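Standup notes, structure subgroup. Blocker cleared on the iron/sulfur cluster input:
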Amino acid sequence: MSYQANFRVWRGDSSGGSLEPYQVEVNEGEVVLDIVHRLQATQAPDLAVRWNCKAGKCGSCSAEVNGRPRLLCMTRMSTLPADEPVTITPMRTFPVLRDLVTDVSFNYTKAREVPSFVPPPDLKPGQYRMQQEDVNRSQEFRKCIECFLCQNTCHVVRDHEENKPAFSGPRFLMRVAELDMHPLDAAAEGGLDRKRSAQEEHGLGMCNITKCCTEVCPEHIKITDNALIPLKERAVDRKYDPLVWLGSKILRRAN
Ligand code: SF4
Ligand code: SF4
Ligand code: FES
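Run returned:
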C-alpha cells in the first residue's frame, strides 16, 4: 500500500532556516530515512542528512521527528499519524551545519575529557579476571552507538548553552560510571579519583535524574538507573566516608 504524505522538513544553516512543506510517497514498511532519501531523489537533491548504516547501529541519523529525538532509520512511518504532516528537524542541542546535519563536536570534546581505562600494573593482558556480574554491567553501557540522542535530550544542556562547559551529559557520565565500577581499573592508584572528577569536572550534580535520556536511548540502556544513580551514590559515599574525609584533611595539611 502506498500513499502520499505531507512533511515539513527544516531547511537552512547556521544563519537561520525554516520548515519547508513537501508531499512524498510512502510505501508499506518504510522508515523516515526512506522518505528523506526519496525527497532527495525526487525534489530536493541538496537536502543534507547524515546517515551510514540504515540499521540503527552507526548512530549517524539522529534528528527529531514530530519534536521527538529519534534515529531516522529506526522510525517507522506506520508509527506516525498518517493524516497529519510529519515534521523533521535537526537535533536542537547542537549547532546546525545544514538542514538535518548538526555539529556534534561537543560530544567528541567531552569524550576526550574522560581518562581511559588504566590497566592494573600487576597483571598482564590475558591474566585479567572479572566476575560475570561486572562484565554484564559494562556490556550494557558498551551497547552505546554514540547517536547522542541522550545528549540532545538532556534538559541541562538542551536549552542552556551556558551549562555545556561544566556538564558532560549522560553519555559521558555513563562512561565515567562504567570505568569507576570496573573492578580492574587502576586509575585510583595513579591518583585519579573518578568519583571526584564526575562531580567536579563532569557536572554529575547537575543531573537531577529525570530519566529523559533513558527514554530516548535506541539501545534501551538504562542510563539513569544503572549508571547515573549508582555513580551519584558512590560519589556521596566517598564524600561521607570518614576515612576518605580524614585522608583528604591529612593531605590538605601536608600540602
Ligand atoms: S537523568 Fe540526568 S542526564 Fe539524564 S536527562 Fe535527566 S538530568 Fe539529563
Ligand atoms: S547512551 Fe543511548 S542515547 Fe546515548 S549516545 Fe549511547 S546509544 Fe545514543
Ligand atoms: S543510519 Fe546508522 S543508525 Fe541510522
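Discussed briefly. The first helix runs from residue 32 to 42.
Next: hand off to the docking folks.
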